[in-house]
Amino acid sequence: MRIGILETGLAPDDLRARHGSYPDLFTRLLGRHGFDFTTHRVVEMEFPDSVHDAEGWLITGSRHGVYEDHPFIPPLEALIRQAVAEAVPVVGICFGHQIIARALGGRVEKFPGGWAVGPQDYDFDGTPLRLNAWHQDQVIDPPEGAEVIATHPFCPYAGLRYGDRAFSVQAHPEFPDDFVAGLIETRGRGVVPDDRLDAALERLGGPGDSGVLADRIANFFRQPRRSAA
Fold first, then answer.
1. Which residues are catalytically annotated?
2. Which is it for strands 36-40 and 56-59: parallel, antiparallel or unpaired?
């Protein structure tokens, strides 16, 4: 199965040198599931020719806000709506979670409670999963018909599912702990309060559940789908 990765932001240069790009992180996360991957750097307006150029789409995280005025956002929203209409599955992570919600009629805002950074304990349909986070923006109002599949006291709409068409989470299952530690030093200091960053650093290093979420993402991509309307 060919998965097209829609790269909506660029990893910091020094972290990219050590860990690879955001698509590299996702390739490692999902590598054991036997997918073939192609990447489209949509943040630089490199879009696929057709929504059917891949059998599924994965939208990465980004430092940008979905409500900001960037050239790539309107065509990305249009691609999402077309994929959903034509039964091409879409998975969104962080920014990807937010842009799917916005494209389908939801609302995303900068959360007044501040940032979530580092390991967080989410409730996925009654199953606790510990996953890394890095965000201040979040979905405030999900689109009509979206099913809430994950919650967190800080982020009540931490996971959404749109039937068999789209699946999205606010957390970053692709971020290993050392990548988060690097983000804290390269992008966090001076932006996120130091006490929140220091608390995140203390939580790093414990067991996590990225593999569990990777399995759920793979199963979603591969599940049978109803034909497009």
1. 94, 172, 174
2. unpaired
